Amino acid sequence: xxxxxxxxxxxxxxHDWSCDQWGKDLDSMKNAGFSVVRLGHLCWDSFEPKENVYxxxxxxKVMDMCYERGIKVFLDIPTRPAPLWLxxxxxxxxxxxxSGQRLNANTRYMEDVGDPHFQNYALNLAEIxxxxxxxxxxxxxxxxxxxxxxxxxxxxxxALIRFQKWLKDKYTTIENLNISWNTKRWSRKLEEFSDVFxxxxxxxxxxxxxxxxxxxxxxxxxxLSYMKELNKCVKxxxxxxxxxxxxxxxxxxVGFDYQKDYRNIIDYPGIGFYPGVNPEYEDGFIGACMNTDxxxxxxxxxxxxxxxQTGTNGGYGPPKGVLRMYAYLSWVYRNDMVCAWTWRSMLxxxxxxxxxxxxxxxxxxxxxxxxxxxxxxxxxxxEKQICRLDDSKSIAVAYSYDSHTVSQYAxxxxxxxxxKGQVLETYKAxxxxxIDCNIIxxxxxxxxxxxxxxxxxxxxxKESAATIRAMVENGATVIMTAYSAKxxxxxxxxxxxxxxxxxxxxxxxVRGFDRAVTHITSVNEGGIDKDPTIIRRKEIDVxxxxxxxxxxxxxxxxxxLDTAEAIGYYSNIDDENNVAVxxxxxxxxxxxxxxxxxxxxxxxxxxxxxxxxIFTRSDVPKGIITRQLSNNHQIYINTTDKTxxxxxxxxxxxxxxxxxxxxxLTINPYEVGIIKF
Length: 677
Hints:
Pfam families: Glyco_hydro_42, Glyco_hydro_42C, Glyco_hydro_42M. By secondary structure, the protein is of the alpha/beta class.
């Protein structure tokens, strides 16, 4: 299939509007230069209002109307939310909370996707839809449902039986499970798999760390398994149609281990690109770019932004120009589709005040015209064959679903948030220096990298440890930060020297830790509530090459040297425990250990000093994102609210505004410039 490199479009819900409105809306999309529309999501009972009663005629008409206007259709298979008639027929689909209470489906995504009855009906709908539309000339791709990974876990009896079977398949014998869960601790030994219950009792009580991690893995595997079944349905009945999905693996309530099996789920990774409406908060758009890299992983295909920021719940939109800035920023980070969420602000329902391109009365807001500008510019860039240079990446950042789960469980110890405080902080060191990376799962790495950063990988399984060992042996530089390798694959603390499985590779032993601030715990020790006020006891910094980096250290580990050498030191610490950063020459490579959680400034220095020449600091002001493009073009994106001047070193011509620049490019807040040297 010939797929455009850049697509701009919108999410549209024709079932919300009269058929007389469809043509007017699609004409407006065509006039805006939109090339794709996403349809079908969130409307199972509009296709199947009653069991085995199907009403696809309305969608047939919409598909034909899209084709007549030259608009391609990304068609979602809407298996969530499940229709109420299915909940009524099979109550096992309903969500049961941690207290054992069945919950009515009062909001979307309140179905147990692992329930066999749900899957039978959902996959039946999927098969009928795929067969019906696979040969339609408007078809671009199928979507594997909307936002799988969001919603709620179900702790029903039927889910428990599936969990028990999952455990038996994994551990084979109850003896193996008892060892892995350390059940002899506090008299929790199991005699058979049917003795297992979910390690939650109400919303406040969590069981032991070992079964809690396995429970989260079980729920994750069920989502992955369901997504693979949807993929199989499409590939069986429409082998030539690409597949993507607007999943939500990063959802804080549910989520799943996406990179464990993403290669077997999608052809093109999909995302809801939501940086937020406040661009002053840079973590929003940096995090959106990080999630894009995470979902691409090691695939050699671009991202599809199946949903893209317009407004938000209660927020009409960001400052003017920011949506365009977001679109180009996402494109630089390998996204080829900007599909606005949503076309028209919804009159009712749960997203009544989530504002789209059109206002509630159907009038065109400024966001419509900004998306129109994006479409016009992207179509022009397509005609001029100005493309990204998606070269292979020499730097990788490791991400671990298990480590994220473990750190959330044990918040009294892991005070630094795993995703925001470790992974995002690492990513910023690359983002602010305009350096690309892949985000990888150490359990299965298919490409070679020169620098690999492992931020706060608190759970270290044997597969990940073997990957790190092999990388260093073969000449890579691996940088691992504090909190890493504290527990093994069963979520039990290592009995061997830390970092577990890797002490010899890094040439050190971690011998404890301290905090420069008072430690606040949720455990009521001695029956007396403690003062929750955090007090700073010490001012600790990190020094490299006799220069302090200006870091306000909270948590720091004590590092004992073995074969490694010290390359960084804590300030204001006793000499015997003052080693902060170490480097060990191991076989052909280097293993660097950092005794504090990931810090952008520190990681920048380390990559600059030990990055084999592939890491260089950006020569443009902070907040300017730039990349070399094809045919001697360069893009500059101002992500800040300040006007910035950039030294171009030679005369150049602007592509978007068709003007000449005499060695200086002045770029306004949230503006984008593409120049040809």
